[in-house]
């Protein structure tokens, strides 16, 4: 699928998606199999935890859940980025879920990747989900590699290294391990993290973009007990007792397949090649998220399914990893929501 009509503000080169197996139907068959394998991992996590209730395959533990946030677009939003309901000055109600990435309900003190899921309520009643994680790129180049790594990681710990080498070879195993080491780390505050889309999404006629939420608050983390398993939630709650938490939404535009590839989720779009442009501000208002109303909101948010394919057509996800998420996230949601 190629975009060849190029207005003056369009990407410098045409962009395209390349389907695994050579066609969209062939790729969908691959993704259907990957979805079944991920649901099997989801059930294995449930059994290992001794839980009668299934959880999300990934991002199982909600840290913060609020349904009264707002995404406000800049009055100076560039004209080529004004698409659909994303227009200068627009203010959209938002639901926000901040989470730990692991598929098990682990303590906040454990090193992990962190996630931000934002569900926008558009004027026509359509949902628009923006999903991001606390590292710029994926450890996996595509969905097949992602599932293979997850399956190896779920096996016996003393077999992981040998299995990785057998599956991917020395150079690729080193790249994957280095990525996971950098991405999986302790966090002092989810309010001070940045969250990247990793993969590209379409932004109407402006073409493919990647996006990022960056913190607008500064200062050190709020002191909370260092060994509390819910320390990230407590820290965020202490912040919201004093002031709103805000994040800037930035996008960077596609340049060409070499510098800003769409299909390879493990390649970073470097700022010097694709500068970040601030387009909006996400505000989580001051509130008590530990009280009864805050707890009710958190439980409501945790029952919602977030999927990058919850989006208008002009903002559809792009690339192999994102295309796979439609099948995998849907299958996972059906399992844990049931």
How many strand segments? 11
Q: Over all CA atoms, what is the radius of gyration? A: 20 Å
Distance between the termini: 35 Å
CATH topology: Catalase HpII,  Chain A, domain 1
Report the portion of residues in β strands.
Answer: 15-25%
Shape: globular
The total of helices stands at: 6
Q: Report the major sheet.
A: 9 strands, antiparallel
Q: Tell me the structural class.
A: alpha+beta
Q: Give the helices and strands as they follow along the chain.
A: EEHEEEEHHEEEHEEHH
Report the top-level CATH class.
Answer: Mainly Beta
CATH evolutionary superfamily: Catalase core domain
> What's the structural domain tally?
1
Averaged pLDDT: 90
CATH architecture, please? Answer: Beta Barrel
Structural commentary:
This protein has 338 residues and is an alpha+beta fold. It has a single domain (27-148, 188-337), classed as Catalase core domain (Catalase HpII,  Chain A, domain 1, Beta Barrel). 30% of the residues lie in helices and 21% in strands. It contains six helices and eleven strands. The chain has helices at 24-49, 143-153, 160-183, 231-242, 292-302, 320-337; strands at residues 2-3, 15-16, 61-73, 91-100, 114-121, 127-133, 195-196, 201-202, 208-215, 245-253, 276-284. Strands 3, 4, 5, 6, 7, 8, 9, 10 and 11 form a nine-stranded antiparallel sheet that branches. A two-stranded antiparallel ribbon has the order 1-2. Helix 1 runs parallel beside helix 2 (143-153) and helix 1 (24-49) crosses helix 6 (320-337). The longest helix has 26 residues, at 24-49. The chain is globular, with a radius of gyration of 20 Å. The chain starts with a strand and ends with a helix. Residues 1-10 have low confidence and may be disordered.
């Amino acid at each position: 699928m190629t975009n060849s009509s190029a207005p003056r503000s369009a990407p410098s080169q045409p962009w395209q998606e390349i389907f695994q197996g050579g066609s969209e139907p062939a790729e969908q068959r691959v993704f259907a199999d990957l979805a079944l394998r991920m649901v099997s991992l989801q059930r294995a996590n449930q059994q290992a935890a001794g839980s009668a209730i299934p959880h999300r395959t990934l991002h199982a533990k909600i840290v913060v859940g609020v349904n009264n946030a707002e995404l406000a677009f800049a009055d100076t939003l560039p004209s080529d980025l004004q698409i659909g309901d994303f227009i200068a000055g627009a203010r959209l109600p938002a639901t926000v879920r901040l989470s730990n990435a692991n598929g098990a309900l682990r303590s906040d003190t454990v090193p992990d990747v962190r996630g931000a899921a934002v569900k926008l309520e558009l004027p026509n009643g359509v949902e628009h989900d923006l999903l991001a994680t606390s590292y710029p790129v994926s450890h996996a180049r595509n969905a097949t590699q992602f599932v293979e790594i997850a399956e190896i990681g779920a096996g016996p710990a003393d077999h992981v290294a040998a299995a990785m080498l057998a599956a991917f070879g020395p150079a690729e195993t080193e790249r994957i391990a280095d990525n996971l080491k950098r991405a999986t780390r302790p966090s002092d505050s989810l309010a001070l993290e940045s969250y990247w889309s990793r993969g590209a999404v379409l932004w109407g006629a402006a073409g493919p973009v990647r996006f990022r939420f960056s913190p607008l608050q500064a200062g050190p983390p709020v002191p909370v007990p260092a060994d509390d398993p819910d320390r990230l939630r407590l820290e965020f709650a202490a912040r919201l007792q004093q002031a709103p938490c805000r994040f800037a939404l930035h996008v960077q535009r596609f340049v060409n397949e070499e510098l800003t590839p769409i299909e390879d989720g493990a390649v970073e779009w470097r700022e010097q090649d694709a500068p970040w442009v601030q387009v909006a501000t996400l505000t989580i208002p001051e509130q008590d998220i530990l009280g009864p109303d805050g707890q009710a909101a958190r439980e409501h948010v945790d029952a919602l399914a977030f999927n990058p394919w919850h989006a208008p057509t002009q903002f559809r996800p792009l690339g192999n990893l994102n295309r796979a998420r439609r099948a995998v996230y849907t299958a996972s949601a059906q399992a844990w929501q049931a």
